[in-house]
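Sanity check

After download, print the first record. It should look like this:
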Amino acid sequence: MMSKLQGKVALVTGGSRGIGAAIAMKLAEEGATVALTYARSVEKARAVVSNIEAVGRRSLAIAADNTDSTAVEAAVRQTVAALGRLDILVNNAGIFLAGPLETLSLQDFDTAFSVNVRAVFIASRAAAGHMDEGGRIISIGSNLAERAPGPGLSLYAASKAALVGLTKGMARDLGPRGITVNVVHPGSTDTDMNPAEGPLADEQRSLMAIPRYGEPRDVAGLVAWLASTEGRFVTGAALTIDGGANA
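Expected structure tokens:
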């Protein structure tokens, strides 16, 4: 059992499935106690908690809709109250809204930015208030923030690009306290939202230097490295992990 994160407490938003579940599990394997939020499936959240407890770590599942600012703040408070502290925040929860510009509504815009940007700001602000030196804030963006390879991606790309500016600004604000802030941009990753054998998978693979989908554990490994002491001098960075799709 690795223990680079021994004694640390992490909160992973949207940690009940896909990349979020892989991150929660990886942090636990590295020694952290892990809380996670979920919006809908309590069964999937409980399964992740059980997997974490099976490797000897404490875990906690918290119901929190990222469109609800009160719920986001409450998840941070509940983590600290139940687990005693907060060292690592992973802003993973997100929503994918796509379509031609003329079909997108103002409600679509508000929803995308509410989940993908506003909730990150709210959670990060709340978490920073509980963090000591060595704290980590890591947000999950998208390689589409850097390059939109096709139509219909304007709203999603814009919301994920906004995370870069937010990350850089927060890194400046929190750097004097020894807290790092970074964003990780995954490319095509094999999850139920974007399966490696889905109808658009071949087109996505054709863009990559390494022509295969990433696995959630690939992203989780990068997040865990940033969360460890080995990543202590990386802040304000946008790290892309996409098999070279944006190369």
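If your output differs, re-run the checksum step. Summary of this record's structure: The mean pLDDT is 96.
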